[in-house]
Amino acid sequence: MNLTERTQFEEAVGVTRTTINRWIRGEKGWPRPDNVKRLLAILTEEQQQEFLVLARKDPEFWEQLHATVSEEPANLPPLPPKWLDSFCYRLLRLQRDTPKPYRQLTGAILKEALTRLESHPNTGLEIIVATCMPPKDGKVRSLRASVGMGTSPWPDHQHTLNSLMGIESLAGYVVTKGHGEVIADLSDSSSLQLQVERATDAGSAAAFPILTQTHGTAGALLALSTQKNFFTEERITMLEIFADTIRLAFSETQFMSCIELGVLPPWDVQHTYFDSFRRRVNDAHQKALREGASPIHSEEQVFAQIEYELLQAGDRMEVHF
């Protein structure tokens, strides 16, 4: 920082050079909240986040700052919720200590998300992770609903899902657009008419892409509620946080940059293909053994076959969305 920049900095924050030097040497406590508001206003977004991470290390100052930000939220960047630090720490340890952490990490994140989002015992909630299928001719053509967890009427344990989603789905829509979307009332014909994965009991839905700016998109996080208008601003923010944290479950190779989703049939058509899924996997497994090949990828091969068949069926359908 040159002399001119330093002078501008001092004037913007409203403190003397002596005070800033004492902050740097650790001879003076944290800046007053009013000074912090002015400080954050002139920092870049990256510098703001670095400052907030440091501030959290002092509980007393953090409480004071948090109260100040809550009074004037429009003037400061949003602060992460207090529970997020310990939760992310647990996820990082799990990622470090687990050889193939996808299922363990997604399970931990879905469980935490259900706890944070649920507000009433009579409100059913399901959260689904949809992942990009392996590319065909260099392009991702569909998403696989890989794992889910919910509350009644949905299964309350981590469960595997066998279905595919294309551009006609809410998950496919947010992956294609690159931003989250909420459908407050699924019965409202004036809202986006997108499929939400067998959601016969759902009243509202929300989804966010799982993405990074450098590596692309790995899929989407989809949430369904039996209650209409369930996804308030607070819940939408939390869901976006979980879509960000679930990136830890994916390797870099699972993020795709070339995505061109096709149209897929609804679940009442898809299930006629997936009803024979296990039999087809077993047949592929036995065929590989007979031919002296490895059967380890039999399930992925059958999924790719079903994806192809469903894309063909989707091409023959007249779909409006």
Radius of gyration: 24 Å
List the secondary-structure elements in sequence, H or E. Answer: HHHHHHHEEEEHEEEHHHH
- Report how far the terminal alpha carbons are from each other: 53 Å
CATH topology of the largest domain: Beta-Lactamase
Number of helices in the DSSP assignment: 12
Low-confidence stretches: 71-77
State the CATH superfamily name of the largest domain: GAF domain
Organism: Reticulibacter mediterranei
InterPro entries: Cro/C1-type_HTH, GAF-like_dom_sf
Protein name: HTH cro/C1-type domain-containing protein
Domain HTH cro/C1-type: 7-43
Could you give the topology of this structure?
Blueprint: H1 3-13, H2 17-25, H3 33-42, H4 45-55, H5 59-71, H6 84-97, H7 102-117, E1 125-132, E2 143-150, E3 159-160, E4 164-165, H8 170-177, E5 181-183, E6 204-212, E7 216-225, H9 233-245, H10 267-274, H11 277-290, H12 298-315
Antiparallel strand pairs: 1-2, 1-7, 2-3, 2-4, 5-6, 6-7
Helix pairs in contact: 3-5, 7-9, 11-12
